[in-house]
Design brief:
Length: 272
């Protein structure tokens, strides 16, 4: 519940980012060098003008953090939706139709053999950097993991007596899959989706840190850390706050996945 509250609060703040920027009068790309840079040449620290301080260009760090949360959450949720949708479809086909199982799983094994971060960098470098390209690049390595999970559930479920009774009763394969097998995959997929979301948020931050993520003019937690890495000694808050936000959200998503696993697994629920 605490993890879910953290995620909900983060999402609410991300949605309210434009309103907060209008309230403070500081846009995410607005540079205020006169007030954002101190007399020593270091960015201004937390205070009345900038609640969490300013970055090296005199931009409000808090406003940029809120706009960065929007990118992280959108990328994380989009990757989870794309991966689960495609992975569920392929996993159902591979697990139920045994003739296609070997071909599809060898393709998935080939995709899993490619390092995800390198594949993402390659796809981003071949196309114009955008949020959509980043989502596609991160989704491709995640799909095989979902496929393997769904396939294992299907292989177990299709051997159950009620599935055999449905086949013997003349039910069509599509009806059996949708009515009897898909419901069995919902609980593990919900848990897997939370882990994919956390992994996607970290991967997006890593790509942005390397300069291979979304365009640099769009604030993200990754490129905020990258642009401030040389200021660690003089202005540690420019790295601490985006790093803390990234760690807190990823931790909350992972703990939410653990909690959902405990609640959705009947054996674990009874034990608790």
């Amino acid at each position: 519940m605490a993890s879910a509250a953290v995620i909900v609060i983060t999402a609410a703040l991300a949605v309210a980012a434009p309103a907060f920027a209008a309230l403070t009068g500081h846009g995410p790309a607005q540079q205020l060098p006169d007030t954002g840079i101190s007399a020593t040449g270091a960015p201004a620290g937390p205070g009345a003008t900038f609640w969490l301080g300013a970055d090296e260009l005199g931009r409000d760090l808090l406003v940029r953090l809120l706009y960065g949360a929007r990118i992280s959450l959108v990328v994380g949720l989009s990757v989870a939706i794309v991966s689960v949708t495609i992975g569920l479809t392929i996993g159902l086909v591979a697990g139920y139709y045994r003739k296609l199982d070997n071909v599809l799983m060898r393709i998935m094994d080939g995709l899993m053999a490619i390092p995800g971060i390198l594949l993402a960098i390659a796809l981003v470098s071949l196309n114009r950097a955008s949020v959509g390209i980043v989502v596609i690049a991160i989704s491709i390595p995640e799909i095989p993991r979902v496929v393997r999970l769904v396939r294992s559930v299907v292989l177990t479920t299709r051997e159950q007596p009620y599935i055999e009774a449905a086949v013997g009763g003349g039910s069509r394969s599509l009806k059996i899959i949708l009515r009897h097998i898909v419901p069995s995959t919902v609980a593990p997929l919900i848990v897997q989706a939370t882990y994919i979301t956390a992994s996607a948020i970290l991967t997006e931050a890593a790509l942005s840190f390397l300069g291979a993520g979304v365009p640099p003019e769009i604030p993200t937690w990754g490129n905020m850390i990258a642009s401030s890495r040389l200021l660690l000694a003089r202005a540690p808050w420019t790295i601490f706050f985006p790093g803390a936000c990234l760690a807190l959200v990823v931790l909350a998503v992972n703990l939410l996945g653990d909690g959902l696993r405990d609640r959705l697994d009947p054996r674990l629920a009874r034990r608790m």
